Amino acid sequence: MTGETSAAAVPVPASVFETREADAAPSLFDFRVVPLASIADEAHVDAIGDGLVAGGLPVVEVALRGEHGLGAVRRLAARGDLLVGAGTVLSVDQAREAIEAGAQFIVTPGLDPDVVRFVQQEGLPIVPGVLTPSEVQTAIGLGLTRLKLFPAGVFGGLTVLSAYADVYRSVKFMPSGGIKLANLAEHLAHPAVFAASGSWITGVAGRGAAAVAEAARSAGAVANGGDAG
Ligand code: 3PG
Question: Is 61 among the residues known to form the active site?
Fold first, then answer.
């Protein structure tokens, strides 16, 4: 692993990645922390993009909530210096719109097989939300091995993960909902976890790009086994 810029021209410090080959384009599954952005104010979009890139965590799941979601996907994807996906995707139509806007991965809060199949046909990664064993098994039946555990904090995320880890050995989870810097390390340390996602990093966008960058750096430090700095 090197810190060299990839062929896809997305400058990413090696510290963010665990698995990416030096010459491979970044993928969602290279990141151990996935910042979620729910855009309350259009003016925050550039602060989020600038801050995540400066903070060495150039990936964002833009929630399609409210009037600014799709436009934010489009604007952030057009930058070309960070990996942009869409979250809170509730239908095939929304998935299609998000992909047309430039989304490179899709995250959903629940498991909708139609949405999963559509995104798979588009050739993009999809990480659907699951909570119950039945949902996990349905997702496995759809060929998925990476799932979002949502809302993890409400349903005893780490305990559930431990119960699932033994049973569903082909699957890894991205807990989301209630993850913060303070509990990030314990979630990432769980062997059934491939990444953790949450809104705490972009949630400071109202204070500008530097605040987002600082939050991203702290998360990256934890993800790489250090303290938050
Ligand atoms: C969500 O979909 O809202 C995410 O899980 C983020 O949850 P958080 O705001 O608790 O980080």
Answer: yes
Identify the domain containing residue 173 by its residue range: 28-223
Task: Kindly name the residue from 4, 21, 42, 61 that is annotated as catalytic.
Answer: 61
Residue 6 domain flag: no
Active-site annotation holds for 180 = no
Q: Which atom of ligand 1 is nearest to the CA of 178?
A: 10
Cα(3) to ligand 1 centroid in Å equals: 30
70 occurs within a structural domain? yes
Domains contained in the chain, number:
1
Secondary structure of residue 172 in the 3-state scheme? strand
Instruction: Give the active site residue among 97, 148, 172, 214.
Output: 148
Domain assignment present for 67? yes
Task: Please report, for the domain that includes residue 125, its CATH number.
Answer: 3.20.20.70
Closest Cα partner for 149 from 169, 135, 170?
135
For residue 78, the tally of other CB atoms under 10 A from its CB is 11
Q: What is the DSSP letter of 204?
A: G
State pLDDT tens for residues 114-143. Answer: 999 999 999 999 999 999 999 999 999 999
Q: What is the pTM of this model?
A: 0.89
Residue identifier of the C-alpha nearest atom 1 of ligand 1: 177
Which strands make up the sheet holding 33-37, listed edge to edge?
172-175, 146-149, 126-130, 106-108, 83-87, 59-63, 33-37, 196-198
163, part of any domain: yes
Residue 70's SS3 state is: helix
